[in-house]
Amino acid sequence: MVSPELLRRYPQFAGVGHETLRKLAMLAEERVIPAGTTLFREWEVANHLYLILKGAVSIRFAVGREEPRSVDAIEAGDLAVWSALVEPYRTTGSGVATQETRMLAFEASRLRELCREDPRLGYNLMTEVIKALTSRLDGIRVQLAVADPAAA
């Protein structure tokens, strides 16, 4: 469990009532991940949603038989494994800590239940998911342009 006051600092939890923050805090587990550690791999079941507190994670996609390409970097304040909130609850990329990273892990099924109980929380988290998806799409667009100079 973490302090509800810690959660209050992040926009994902803005406007969420004290009782919901308390329940979220009870769900949260703080983790420290060494640099170079793979946090999740493509197509794994997304059992946790992560909030990055400090550090950075490279989001990578495999393209055919090539080495995975980095399409985005997430940092303090960003969510990782947004797919924990969206069916079919499988990761769409891999995440590798590019430096020591401190994060909060929220157990996905319990978090989804809390979102159903408190629509404000669900709205806030889905807004952040859309921002993450937009960033990933921009990263993919750049990778496609690099792979095919004619597309740029």
- What amount of the residues lies in strands? 25-35%
The low-pLDDT segments are: none
Biggest sheet features: 4 strands, antiparallel
The secondary-structure class comes to alpha+beta
Outline: globular
Q: CATH superfamily membership, which one?
A: Jelly Rolls
In percent, how helical is the residue content? 25-40%
Helix run count? 4
> What topology, given as strand order, has the largest sheet?
1-8-3-6
Number of strands: 8
CATH topology: Jelly Rolls
Number of domains: 1
Q: Could you state the order of secondary-structure elements as H and E?
A: HHEEEEEEEEHH
Q: What value does the average pLDDT take?
A: 92
Distance between the termini: 47 Å
CATH class: Mainly Beta
Short description:
This protein is an alpha+beta fold. The chain contains 4 helices and 8 strands.
Summarize this structure as a short list of keywords or feature phrases:
Jelly Rolls; four-stranded antiparallel sheet; 28% strand; 152 residues; alpha+beta
Topology:
Blueprint: H1 4-8, H2 18-27, E1 28-33, E2 38-40, E3 48-54, E4 56-61, E5 69-75, E6 79-80, E7 94-97, E8 101-107, H3 108-117, H4 119-147
Antiparallel strand pairs: 1-8, 2-7, 3-6, 3-8, 4-5, 4-7
Could you describe the 3D structure shown?
It contains four helices and eight strands, in the order H-H-E-E-E-E-E-E-E-E-H-H. The protein has a single domain, classed as Jelly Rolls (Sandwich). The protein has a four-stranded antiparallel sheet. The protein has helices spanning 4-8, 18-27, 108-117, 119-147, and strands spanning 28-33, 38-40, 48-54, 56-61, 69-75, 79-80, 94-97, 101-107. The model has no long low-confidence stretch (mean pLDDT 92). Helix 3 (108-117) packs across helix 4. With 152 residues, it is an alpha+beta fold.
